[in-house]
Design goal:
The protein is mainly beta and about 140 residues long. Helices cover about 10% and strands about 50% of the residues. The protein contains 2 helices and 10 strands; from the N terminus they run H-H-E-E-E-E-E-E-E-E-E-E. A hairpin with a 2-residue loop joins strand 7 (about 90-95) and strand 8. The longest helix has 10 residues, at about 1-10.
Length: about 140
């Protein structure tokens, strides 16, 4: 799955991990939800439909930022694209899920591996400083 690729890319080697300033992945409890994601007022996903895998709880919607090239790699619906993006230590994340908007201010000092869970009406953001593993 693509999300496992994301985790491996962020955590497999220290050199690679230092080149990625943050990673964001949609995970549990999404079921044919229409999602738009903006980071620092830059639209990343626009009205994509996501569903969490029944067994793993993962989706095919994620993004990660390379510091050296200032590129945001976006994976949605099993497709990958790259966008120019200037990173920062704080992120303003806007999630529009089924026409309900939620806004989060994220300090990357609290963890640069970020997951978005959809188990409640308002999505929940969790941050991790270390690798994310699915058990």
């Amino acid at each position: 799955m693509l999300i496992f690729q994301l985790t491996a890319c962020v955590d497999s080697k220290m050199k690679i991990q230092k080149n990625i300033s943050f990673a964001v992945a949609f995970t549990s409890c999404f079921k044919q939800d229409t999602v738009t994601l903006s980071i620092n007022n830059e639209k990343v996903f626009d009205k994509i439909s996501i569903t969490s895998d029944f067994v793993t709880g993962l989706t095919y919607a994620s993004t990660y930022h390379f510091t050296k090239s200032n590129e945001l790699v976006v994976i949605a619906d099993k497709n990958e694209k790259r966008l120019p993006f200037i990173g920062s230590k704080k992120l303003l994340v806007k999630i529009n899920r089924n026409q309900i908007e939620s806004i989060f201010e994220i300090n990357l000092a609290d963890g640069r591996n970020i997951i978005i869970e959809g188990c409640e009406l308002k999505p929940k953001i969790r941050q991790f400083k270390n690798k994310i593993s699915v058990e």
